[in-house]
Design brief:
With about 475 residues, the chain is α/β, with parallel strands linked by helices. The chain has 16 helices and 14 strands. About 40% of the residues lie in helices and about 15% in strands. The strands form three sheets. It has an eight-stranded mixed sheet with strand order 5-6-8-7-11-14-12-13, with helices on both faces. A four-stranded antiparallel sheet has the order 2-3-1-4, covered by helices on one side. A two-stranded antiparallel sheet has the order 9-10. The longest helix is centred in the N-terminal third of the chain and has 28 residues.
Length: about 475
């Protein structure tokens, strides 16, 4: 019986999954000191959706709980103008007083998550169980690999390559990085690792470039994810897209065409320190892990998506209690623009390749939105209609799969004005016309704790949207080739 040589090679590469180790460095000593910290326990914490009766009541709640970090009550996600309700994360200690306040004000409310820690534990167990089952299945396949035939080995083993490492589970940064390296080793003709810099803790900020052919003048598509640590579905979706590009090239002419025409630069996690911390210590951590001294108090982290050097902190100009200036708050925008090594590295790489990058896409969660520039103002960009048309086509393609509905607009229209964001910077400074943020599933039932069984459908529908976006991108010949303008 014939044995597929590529299958044997891929099997050998797969064996490295359990053996790869990162070299030690001085930065790891800092990380290891944090690994000794006790994980944050969210037992008894609840996510409560409040339905204010009037806009004044709504604004009052937003203002109060946005400007304090010590009440045991925080906004679970940013308020949406599409929905009058507000979602709050309430600590066990503050629960009785918060509910009493709501009843006193005669505000109706509902409990979305009645015990946050229980949900966190369930999802961790679910992910570990899936990993165990996949490892057992892959082991069985390896034992029978000598029976694989040329006709089916490539398809089977490429699927196993993904399933055995990062598929349908929330892999940590080391697992994702190792998987990317293994992909690049297994498919050197179409993929290679790129590194844009180092994180605050010295971790390599790595992504993968995927393309067919070595034409260095090709236009490029950029996708990043995980700039907010707790938004785990974003890196998982980036992983799905990487796998779709790698495995789809065989029998999908559309995907093959996308690889022949474009270079794809994909970074599943632009904030590895924060992402690791959300895995080991605080599941709801949002920011980077840099240290900041504030009024004799040590605070940690910056909201990297408010740290870019484009209208940075402009919303704080006449507001001394602006949330972006609260060093220990979730949306602290840094002591200065580009204070974080992660945002410096990203901007340097994008600027160095700005003439070839034709689309910038940043994946976030949650709320199911296409967010278009500008975030710093209520005004539209001059080419807003082109971006909206692209997003509308993408939303139709996305909805077609699972009937998931997305809204489209600027942050000021849908959510709130936010300054220093990556997609504003990519458009306003790097000059990338099609700069878009996607907020992935869901709309609040699970929020940042989206069950692992939703990774695959989220990946499929997002990939459908991305393909449609690039299809529309190609139609803009003025932007793509500077012709027909």
């Amino acid at each position: 019986m014939l044995v597929c040589r590529s299958c044997v090679h891929l099997s050998a590469v797969l064996l490295l999954t359990c053996c790869w180790s990162e070299p030690t460095s001085s930065s790891q000593a800092i990380r290891e000191s944090e690994e000794d910290l006790e994980p944050v326990d969210y037992s008894g914490y609840q996510v409560i959706r409040v339905h204010p009766g009037t806009q004044q009541e709504r604004l009052s709640l937003i203002r109060y709980y946005s400007e304090t970090t010590d009440a045991g009550v925080t906004l679970w996600t940013e308020p949406s103008k599409l929905d009058h309700s507000l979602d709050f994360l309430v600590s066990k200690k503050a629960l009785r007083a918060f509910q009493l306040l709501l009843r006193r004000r005669r505000l109706s409310f509902e409990v979305l998550i009645d015990d946050l820690q229980r949900l966190i534990d369930e999802q961790r167990e679910e992910s570990n169980e899936y990993k165990r089952r996949e490892e057992e299945r892959i082991a069985r396949n390896r034992r029978s690999i000598s029976q694989s035939t040329v006709s089916n080995c490539s398809e089977t083993n490429e699927r196993d390559f993904y399933d055995s490492t990062v598929a349908n589970r929330y892999a940590n940064y080391t697992e994702i990085s190792n998987w990317l390296k293994l992909v690049a080793r297994a498919y050197p003709n179409i993929s290679e690792i790129f590194e844009i810099g180092r994180s605050y803790y010295g971790q390599p900020l790595t992504g993968i470039k995927i393309t067919i052919g070595r034409n260095s003048t090709k236009p490029a598509v950029w996708i990043d994810a995980g700039i907010h640590a707790r938004e785990w579905i974003a890196p998982a979706t980036a992983n799905y897209i990487i796998n779709a590009l790698i495995t789809g090239r065989h029998d999908d002419l559309v995907i093959r065409g996308l690889l022949e025409e474009f270079e794809w630069y994909i970074m599943p996690s632009i904030n590895p320190d924060g992402y690791d911390y959300s895995h080991t210590t605080d599941r709801l951590w949002r920011k980077t892990r840099s240290r900041v001294q504030s009024h004799r108090r040590t605070c940690f982290g910056v909201d990297a998506n408010r740290n870019f050097d484009f209208h940075w902190q402009s919303e704080c100009e006449f507001n001394p209690r602006c949330r972006g200036r609260l060093a220990c708050g979730d949306v602290f925008s840094g002591s200065r623009p580009l204070s974080e090594p992660e945002t410096i590295a990203l901007t340097n790489f994008i600027l160095a390749n700005r003439n070839r990058i034709k689309m910038y896409l940043s994946l976030h969660s949650y709320s199911q939105l296409f967010l278009l520039p500008w975030g710093y103002t209520t005004e539209h960009s001059s080419d807003y209609d082109d971006l909206k048309n692209m997003s509308e086509k993408a939303a139709i393609a996305l909805t077609r799969l699972y009937d998931t509905n997305y809204s489209i607009g600027t942050p000021g229209e849908i959510l709130y004005q936010a300054t220093g964001g990556s997609f504003d910077w990519a458009k306003g400074v790097a000059g990338i016309k099609y700069s878009i943020t996607m907020e992935l599933r869901d709309t609040g039932s699970y929020g940042f704790l989206l069950p692992a069984q939703q990774i695959e459908p989220t990946g499929k529908e997002t990939w459908a949207a991305v393909k449609e976006m690039v299809k529309e991108l190609k139609k803009d010949t003025c932007w793509m080739t500077r012709t027909n303008c």
